[in-house]
Amino acid sequence: EVQLLESGGDLVQPGGSLRLSCAASGFTLSNYAMSWVRQAPGKGLQWVSGISGSGDNTFSADSVRGRFTISRDNSKNILYLQMNSLRADDTAVYYCAKELSGSYPATDTFDIWGQGTMVTVSS
Amino acid sequence: QPVLTQSSSASASLGSSVKLTCTLSSVHSTYIIAWHQQQPGKAPRYLMKVESSGRYNKGSGVPDRFSGSSSGADRYLTISNLQSEDEADYYCETWDSNSQVFGGGTKLTVL
User: Fold this and answer.
1) By the CB < 8 Å criterion, does B97 face chain A?
2) Half-sphere exposure of A81 toward its Cβ, with a 13 Å CA cutoff?
3) Which of A123, B49, B68, B88 is 20 to 30 A from residue B24's alpha carbon, by CA?
């Protein structure tokens, strides 16, 4: 069964850091681009960052560029999101998502979603 | 970057049909979009992709009651024979220039 399982969400103070992980199973991670998508409480979905199958190409939304870094370890089948300089408006459920086809990010939709992990930024 | 516009809410009766709309910004009117369903308290679920031609491709396990269509810059999701479990938020999504874009979502209430 194709599955994504996020972990690492926590309560963190403004200005702090956190690393999220997404463990993939049931498919060859390196064959697909992956992304992180977040959802603030009571709000809609917002794409955060995407990465190519090889990890050579990454893209991020303006709101997180320079603060968040997406990476992957294909040998371990894990996707990461390193979040630095966290702000209150980063509070959200963070989902990892697999692109339907292709290894280059932002060339297709998402066909598999994880269950999400909650990040709360508050003092 | 494309902009996707959705009505914030919709409602329809159990057993009836409903058609949700996602409108692309005019310069992006030929783009493919996808529909995702998010039931209360759950993660999103991929439903289908809809092309400008009206052709659509559904994800695995999506019931036949769900279909897609298109007209100009509008992309539609039609749900027939509404069931209580169809009460959810529905998001359209597209991709371009190294980013992915979501519409604001439509909250569907099944009466």
Assistant:
1) yes
2) 34
3) B88
Q: Are B89 and B28 in contact (CB under 8 A)?
A: no
Task: Say whether A44 and B102 touch across the interface (CB within 8 A).
Answer: yes
In angstroms, the CA A9 to CA A121 distance is 10
Instruction: State how far residue B73 is from chain A, nearest Cα, in angstroms.
Output: 18
pLDDT tens by residue, B36-84: 999 999 999 999 999 999 999 999 999 999 999 999 999 999 999 999 9
Q: Is the Cβ–Cβ distance between A58 and A50 less than 8 Å?
A: yes
Query: Whole-angstrom Cα distance, residue A121 to residue B64?
Result: 42
Q: Which neighbouring-strand residues pair with B6?
A: B22
Which distant-in-sequence residues (6+ apart) come within 8 Å of A36 by Cβ? Answer: A20, A22, A47, A48, A49, A50, A68, A70, A79, A81, A94, A95, A96, A97
